[in-house]
Each structure stands twice: as C-alpha cells, then as structure tokens.
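Case study: DNA mismatch repair protein. Excinuclease ABC C subunit.
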Amino acid sequence: MLAKAQVARGYFSPAGAGDVTTSKKQSVRCAAAEWYEHGWRAASLVRSDKSSAPSWSGGRVTGSGSSTFLGAPFKALETQPRRTFFSFFGRARAGPKAREKIDSTFQTREDKDWWIERMEACDKPDAQLMREKLDFNSMLGLDEEVKPGTVNAVILEHRKAQPRCMLLTRVGDFYESIGFDAVLMVQYAGLNPMGQKLPKAGCPKQNISRTIEHLGAAGFRVGVIEEAGLDTRGRKERYLGGIYSKENPYLRGIVDSEKDGDFDEPPPIVGLAFSKRGYIMVSVNLPMQTYVKEENLTEEGVIAKLRERGAAPILYIHSSLRDGAPGTPTWQKSAIKTECETRGSLAFFTGDAMELEEVILAEVRKAYNKEGEDFEETRNVNENRPRPLYYSTAIQIGLHPLAGMPRLLDAVMPKDASKLCRSYVKRLLLNPPPYETAGKIQEACRLLSSVSVSLPDFPCEPDYKLVKLIREREVNHKQFSQIRALSESVRAMFADDALRPIARLLLEPTELATGLTGFDETRLTADCDEIIGLISAKVPDVREQQTDGNASWLTIDDDFRALRDLLDENERGWRGRIKDEHLETEFNEVFAAAQKLKATVERDFGAVLMFAKARGGTLKAEVQYNLTTKGFWLRCKGLKAQPLEGPLADVGARLRHAENNGKVEANCWTTDEVTSALSAYKKASEAAAAAVRNELQSLAEALEPKLKAIRTIACFAIVAKSLQMHVTEGMQRRWVFPILLDDPPNPGDPSAVAAQHGAPKPSKVESSPKKKVGRPSKNGKGGGNGGQNVGSDENGAMESVGKRRLSVEGLVPFWLDLGAVPNTFGIESMVLLTGPNTSGKSTILRAICAAALLANCGLMIPCAAAGVPRFDAYMLRMFLSDSPAESKSSWQMEAIDTRNILADVTGKSLVLVDELGKGTDVHNGMAFVGSFFVDELGKGTEVHDGTAFVGMVLECLDATGCMGILATHLHGVLDMDLKTRHVARMAMGTKLEDDGSGRPVRRATWKLIDGECRESLAMETALLAGIPPGLVDRAIELKQQLLQNQTPPQETPLQITPQETSLLTPPQEPSGEESPLDTNALFLAHFHASQPKGGISQNGARRKNGKPAFKGLKDVTPLFKDLTGEMYFEGASKGGGAFIAIDAGSVPPPATVNRAYLYIFQRTDGAFYVGETDDLRGRVKRHRSVKPPGTALNFYALHLPEGKSRSRELEARLIRKLKDAGVPLANKGDQYHTKFGVGIPAGNGMGGNGLEYEPLVPTPIAIEPPF
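Here is what the predicted structure looks like once written out:
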C-alpha cells in the first residue's frame, strides 16, 4: 500500500514484482523528506513485510516490498532530531555526479554570534517554533543546501555582502523571507509563518512599507531584492533595490499613488570621537545625503544632542574611547557610554579621530549600498552664538517631556500649529541662534505684529521628505503641486511691497536651519520661478482640477454604472496627473478603447437588460464590477431557462459563463467580444499609466539640480509660518518683545550707553541714581558689597558690576496667565535667594530661564517689559533623584551637575541653581525625621557639608562674573565668611494672615524682594499637604528641642527687606556716593516706544496693479461701503483705515488678534456669507475647512473699533441690505438680531475689542501656586 502511494507521488517507479527502485533523475533526499513529513511511525503501521532491510548503491534504494524502505536505518532515526535525519540522507547523495553546491557557512564568528543573539531574543511562540528548524552554521539559517541558480542562491549572495542585514525577496505579488529573516518577520512584524519544512514568512506587496517600518523600529536594516526581466535561460533576474531602516524609510510606489509619503524625520547616523579640545560628533542624514561635523563638545553637550535628535541603532565610536587612550575620558564610567548603549549597539572603529567624517561615511556607504554616492557637508555655525541647551535645563522648562512640567511650546505656539512648526521652534530654543540671527528674527516678528496685508498660507513640507522623493523618483502629482505651491508662496512674499522686508529678514534664519549658503533674494526668487515653470508645464494644478482623476469624460447610462466604476478604477491612478498635450497619443488610445468597450457592453449586455425588462420582473439582470477581484460581467439568474429569441438570439448564442481568477462564476455571463474589448482597454490604460509614471519621473529628474533651492524654499516656508503663528499666539497672550542688550561700552560714557539702548542721550539733570542690587551683608559676609561698582579683581573676571543687567518688569511664569502674581526685578551678578517652602523659588527660576532663552532667540516673552543681555549659556539646575541603574545617589547626581556647570560657566552665562542639598532647613527637616521613617527626608547630604558645598559653589560662580540665582534652604550660608564681591541677596516674600481661627499664620506672597529669609514655612506646607495636625504638632515640639540645644542665630528667624526691586522707581543709593547712569529708565523708555501699537494700516486693501483683490465680491462692495460708512474706506486709501483683504492662499495677519471684525465671502455655490468674529484667523480657517475641503475662499473683512456689539449690529443690517438687493445669501437668520448690548470703546484694556490696551497691572490673587 505504501509503495503504491509513493509511486503515485512520483518518487518511485515499479521495478519488478514487489521491488521499489528510485528513478535515476529523482533525489533520494526528496523521498526521505516526504517520508519524514508524514512520519515514519505512521508509515510503519502499513508495512506488509519486515523481513528485509534497504540496501544503498549509487544513489538507488533497492529491496523487497515496502519494507525495503522502512528497515533498520529508519528505526534508528525514529528518536533522532530532524537535522540528523537529513544529514543521513545527505550522505546518500555523495558521488561523482552530485550537483554543485554553494558554501553558506558564516564567514566570521562575530556575524554568527550576532544572529544567534537576535534569535535568542525572540519570545513569540511561533518564532520560537521556527527557531528550532534553523541551522546556526548557515548564513541564511537554512538546514539544506543552497543550489546555484535558485532564489536562495541570490539571497545568499547578498547576505555575504551584507552579513547583518535582513533580506526580503519579491516573488510575484509577495515579499518573502527565509531562515533567520523569517523568524524576525514573525517576531517583530506580526506576520504568520508560511512554510512547514523550512522557516518562511512573507507579506503582500501592498504591505511591504508597513512591514519594513516595524522591522526598522526594532533596529534592523532591511534589504529588498526586487524582480527584473527574464535572463537568457528564462529565469527571473533579481537585484538589490535598496537597504532600508528607520533612518532610511522605504518609499517605493508613491509615484503611482495619491499618498503623501509622509514619514517622521529619521534619526541621524552618529559617529563619536575625542580630541584634546573636546568631543567630535558627526551626524549623517541619510535621506538628504548630508552630514554635519561638530567639534569641541562637552560631555553634557553630546548627551543633549543625542537626546534632541536621536540616533540610528548603530553608533560608531572611536576605539580610543573604549581602550582608554591617554588624554581620553574614562569610557566605562562616562555618562556618554550609558547614553549610547541605551540607543543601540556600538561599533568601534580605528583611524584618525580628526578624520571622523571620512570613516563614518565609508561605513554608511557600505552598510546602505551607496558606494560611489556623494554626501555633502552642511555648514554648522558655532561662532558668536550661545551653546546648545543642556538636557537637564531643557526638561526643567518643558522643552523635553517631564511629568508635571508644563510644555513651553504650548505657550509659545498656538494649539493648531503643525508638527513641523513646533519642531522648528523647539530646535531654535534647544540650539539658540547666533546673536545677529536672533536680532533679525525679532525684527521680523515685530514687523509681523504690525503688518496689515494678508500673509501667504505656506503649505509646509519637510525638506528631507522632498529630497528623498526626488532622489528616488517617487514624487507624485500631488507632491509636485505642493512644491509649486511652496514656491509660489515664497515668490509672493518677496513680490509684495509690505512683506518684502520681512522676507529678507527671514533669509538668515533659513540659512541657519538648512546650513546652505548663497541664497539671497535674487537667486531664491529666480529658482522659485524656474521650479514653478517646470512643474506648471507638465502637472495640472490640483486646486483647479475638477475631475478628481475620474473618467468623467465618458457619458454612461445608469444601467451601466458598473462600467463607470470599472473605468474610474482603472484610470484613477493616472488621469489628471499630467497635462493632456504631453501624452496625447496614449490618452487618445485609452479614449478609443473605452468607447469601444462601452459600445460592446451596451450592445451585448444591453440586449439582455432589455430582454429582462420586457419580462416584467420575472428575470432580473444587472451589470456588475467586483472591486476586489476586478471581475466584470452580466449577472442574470435563470438566463438559460429563458433563452433570448428573435433579434436577440444572436447575443444569446454568444453568451458564456464568466470566469473569476480561473473559476467559473455561477449566473455570471459575458461574451468574447466584451472580454476582448475589456482586455484592449486595460492594456491601453496600463500603457497610459506607465507613460504618466515616466513623465513624473522625468520631471523629478529635471528638478534634482534644484534640490538645494527646494530645501531652502521648504525651510523658508516653515520658518515664516512658525514665526507668524508665534506672534499670533504671543499677541493673544499679551506678551511683549524684549530689548536685546549687547555688552555695554564703558560705563563712564553715558552717551555710548544711551546710543546702545536706542534711547535719547540723558542730560546730567535727568540722570537718576542707580539702585543697589540686593542688600549688603553685615560685616562683609555672604553678600559682598551689594552691587556697588568695583574695580576688577586679581583675575580680571569682572571689571564692574552693572556692565550687564537683566531687567524685567511684570514677569509671570509662561504656563500661567496674566492674572498670576507678576515679579519685577533687576539682576547684575549672582544672587543668593532664600525663601520658605512653596514660596515660588523654583517657579521664578524656571520663569527667568525661559524668558531669557525666548528673548535671545528673538521671540516674545511673558512680561510687561524687559531688557535681556546676550547670554552664551543657559544653565538651570533643579533637584534630581538618585540613579539606581548607575549606582549613583541623589547627592552624587547633584555633584555631577555642579561639576558640569563649574566646568562650562563663563562671565556671560546665566546660571540658575535650585537648592543644592535639596529639602527644607535643618531644624524642620530633622523635626520631621523624628516623626517619620522615610529615606532621607530633607534630601541631600549632611547639613554642614551641604552648606559648605553651597558656599564653595557660590564663590566659584561669583569669581567667573556670571549672572544668575542660587536658591537654597541652607541658611547657614548666610552667616559664612565667603570670598565673594558681587553676590546680592534676595528672598521670596511672606505676609501674616489670619488662619480663620484667630491665630496668625505666615503665607507666601510669591513676590521676589530684596533681603534674606530664614523661615521655611515647612510646618504650614505640611498641613496644606494633608499631614495630620497631630503629627505636625509633634514635629514642632521636636524643632523646639533642637533650637534649645543650639546657640540661636545672630539675626531673628525672619529677616526680610520689604523694599521691592523695581524698574520704574529706582531707590536712592547712600549719600556721598556718585550716582551711576540709570540704564533701566533708558531701556524702558525705548521699550515702550518700540512695542506694536493698535490699529491696522490698510496698505493691503488693493494690489499694486490697482485691480481689486477679489472678483466674486466686487458687486457687493458698494453695498458694503454704503452700510459701514465712507470713513473706513477713506482711511483705507490713506493707510489708516480698518479694511483688510484676504485672498486665496493667504491668512489674516497677527495684528487681527482680539479685534472685532465684520466679514463677507462668496461660497463655491455662489451664495454669500456674512459673519462677525473677534477671532478672524480662526474663523477663516474653519470656513475653508468645510466641504469641499481645501477650497480657497476670498474674504473682505472690516475692523470695528466699537467692539463686538457694533459688529453684530452691522452684520444684521448688512444681511438685510443684501437680501433686499437680491443677493443670494447662505445665512439669513442673523438678520433678525435686534439686541446688541453696549459697545466698549477701544483702549479700555478689555479683551476682544482691539490692541490699544492700557498697561496691564495684574492683581495678585490667592491661588495655590504650582511650584
């Protein structure tokens, strides 16, 4: 029985009675595999004779009966592994005629260990079962020979070239993987196993992009082997299409689709080395094929950049760091080693560290199959700019995620800001620009705050995406339209007289973002014109396209709507993507084939439909098109039972059953003529699709020389839109533009100082005495001389205190509104800040750091007025917890942060340190420790050591001449004899209040004042936190015991100087001293004069050619004028009115924020819409977002200074007026408004009626601060 089964399968041929002999052309191995698949245990149950054993001779098996194949050798194999089983039969093939095989063993031990490590990490059950079938000696993981000329031989060839790269092979409509690769596909891409004998997995071609994305996210590089034509032997040729990963996304097939091709910015490939001047870091951007080299980096700077940009899974590290070469940091104990290891595997290399870029580029070319391709270096400006923000500083002001910390970007940018705009502003803040660039950014923002014309609505696209699509010839028609729209927007900004000054200012920030030089106004506009011309010549504008890619040119009856679906499905992928004149022949062929198909279908299928209708419903017929199987037929049940007669008999004779993928469909009919016409149409449509693809790819090739210009255009659009949205949000929040102060000249030259600040030169009579910063300490301890002018010290660190001054009026934390308690202060040196718990010390430090950073980036800040010096670094150190993974205590983490600050600080740095030796004061802390059993309450170190450490840090910072604040609860530092000369003392204020029971309690005021504070309010804070009063009382008793056992301090527990630091009323210095120049008054006068004033000029009402900006509304303009009065339009002609035009592709300027507007526009259906709003920007965006989406509507808008009530009144009147004139209206209900309230005149400081606000003085309110 078994012998017959094997003969039926073709493995054996009968050779005499009862003999079974292998065919000479068949492999014994195949027979053995078949036996193994079905199991020799089951086969032994049907054996008819057990007397004989098989004999082997020259690759043949002979014996008597079926038992010749199931003898002793098989019994011995029943308990052995599958690998031994195949090895047994592999030896049977040895002989002079054995086929040639390819060596597939690993070439290096390191590569083998790499794959074994990945296999051991697989934990999914299916992946583990597949893993048992692997041969770990084979580079493919296959437990079989690799034969020449097979697909596996092609895969092996590429595996030898890329030993640590996964490989997917195109096989028809699938991408398949084998061996090691199949296991990883199942583990990380969520696919199911495909093979029984060998590990195999795969995915349909439409899912390849998502599969590679999953594998890339897991840290793998994936090589894709594509199919080509047939070779001379009739076999398919295959080639390596590319190597893809997280840093090099897969984008094939985009040109034939309508996908946007969006992908997140890939992480750079990073190389790291060390020189005598610091770390060297090379970052390679693979999609754009660029790299940037950064030198002289500190350890903290390297970590900050790695966390900002991310890094590819493989980081290249110079071997000198690992080996501990002389002059290099200790690698095993460095924080960089820990940071790098958390991001992926490390690849160590040798060579000249100063030629790091050449080594990294060589590795990149080899790893990603880019041999011979060029990588361009982008310019990295390091001169005359601040250092990048430390990661610890960034998380404390909300630039990086931190639980409980408000995000700075949420305050700087509006909620609807795009990801690209937010990303640009975040990078700007993490890497503050050069001082000159910051000044141009601020000037551009100032102009944006006052411009009255509509602004281009830039369709932002990332430059890395456009570059990769163009390089790989995968740009589709929609993306070409986006590139054209970008170029048109940039061109329009330079063409508008009102916007041209802003555009010129934005060129420098754009150059900084791209690293590309040489693009001035002339070159950029010329490139925009050339790009617009190239694209417009071939690609129709999708904004004007009405067919939406469908075959609407062919008129088809409803009875044949399935034919329309077929035509639309086949032509959607190419119609409307290239202008007809470029492919007239191909399109005409499609048109002719479609007409012929339509005529054939109407003739053959139409006859049956007429016959069915004549039957009165007893016979139902319908033309159908299956979108899934692409089948097209006539469905009619019972057609043969009622054959066609008369004139229709000919059609009935030609009808036959339709087939669907080789399977006959019941009750589905077609004719040979319809099948032939359909085939001809599909062939013509495919030819047209190929021609369209070729045209799009040729256009991408034509644009490749303009890649630098396209990058500049894309970045210019992002910069312009980001700053535009920031100014809108800043004006909404009533933030201001600070005065950026350069290093002052000689303080003895008042004229020079006045000129620097842009203020009038003061006379000697107007010169007011300067206030001392902080309070002088007793006996020269702790606070130096309180900020008086002094000579230079022996190190020449600071010639005089007061050369640089940070002056802020009405500062509030960026995450709070203007109702919060504002602070006004001035800082010229280091400040020792004391204050109770929850009094706002940490908050004021965060607020100062964020305001100074925003100002030095050219952005608006949350205060009433400010003068901010140019800082070269921003160092904000808050308390950090311990790091168990690194075996570091909390105090050790503080010491490491302090080491980094002291190593990097200069005289131009802003240093803000919050509570070294974190916690409360010693007495309250020890009292609570007596009540609780916890780990280091009053966290930090022993109090005397901590106090001494704080004093040492304060001395070091004072010696550098830097500016900043050191906040502490260690009040012992106030009584130490410190070697400081410029340190001032400030405190967070408190006040006495009734707690409701008649007992006075001290509460925090959250105001920054001069003086010092020795009270902690720890007990009050504990009660507010919900600790039971009995436990707090016990802590108070323990505190009293501590105070009785120690000598009381020289001063009272609470020492606060109530005089607040003010910019407006500087106090007098002691008599007898010479009064210095009042720089506060100078900068403040210039500040208030430089802020944007209310009112919108009307220069943009008409274009410079004199023609109206809108065509659809020109007939309504006289009614609009008559209703609102001639005063507004007269003002418009003089540049001082309230009219604004917003044409297609533009948005309202930021100056429209919080103003009442009456507006009108014409919808796409011809009807007019009249509305009123105090959020014109948001209202325009909502109108344009309704169906049809993306419709570019033109608007007229009129600002009404009387406020919202006046705008609602005029809205109702205008609707009635237009209705009476016979104008079609979309909203008639608002004409019945009769009660409009009382209008509030402009300039009263109320929201919603204009920008002519009186200076806002926030009232302190009793709220719980989020400290």
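For the exam, be able to explain this: The radius of gyration is 40 Å.
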